[in-house]
């Protein structure tokens, strides 16, 4: 009997802990920007920096999704170096649409390894929106 009561008590405490963690994540301001142009990375990163300053402790996650023909530019490692370095310094995640890579016949090995590839960038954007991310498409 003591074991059952102790087990129930442990489950209840665990549920309250999970709920508190979920509420903490929801209280953060999370952002995602979908872009089809590499030059837009500069103002997007400036925006991420400004939002981090403005949000303070409420700043959460910031992700950039790159889709469309511009994925061809990702092969230019010199062009991408500064963007990747700045994004890493700001803890901004750059994600690449795998569907776009396939469409424009770009091998994942041709793009910088710091970039994460997702199967479908548009779907990924919607999935983040369902998690409460504020979204902007450029």
UniProtKB/TrEMBL annotation:
InterPro entries per record: DsrEFH-like, Sulphur_relay_DsrE/F-like
Name under which the protein is recorded: DsrE/DsrF/DsrH-like protein
* Endpoints of the signal sequence: 1-22
Q: Which UniProt keywords apply?
A: Signal
Q: Which SUPFAM superfamilies match?
A: DsrEFH-like (SSF75169)
> What's a Pfam family in this record?
DsrE
């Amino acid at each position: 009997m003591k074991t059952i009561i102790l087990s129930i008590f442990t489950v209840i405490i665990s549920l309250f802990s999970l709920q508190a963690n979920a509420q903490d994540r929801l209280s953060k301001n999370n952002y995602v920007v979908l872009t089809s142009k590499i030059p837009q990375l500069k103002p997007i990163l400036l925006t991420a920096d400004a939002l981090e300053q403005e949000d303070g402790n409420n700043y959460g996650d910031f992700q950039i999704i790159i889709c469309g023909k511009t994925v061809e530019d990702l092969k230019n490692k010199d062009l991408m170096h500064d963007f990747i370095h700045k994004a890493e310094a700001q803890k901004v995640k750059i994600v690449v649409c795998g569907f776009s890579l396939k469409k424009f016949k770009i091998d994942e090995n041709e793009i910088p390894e710091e970039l994460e590839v997702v199967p479908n960038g548009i779907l990924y954007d919607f999935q983040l929106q369902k998690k409460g991310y504020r979204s902007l498409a450029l």
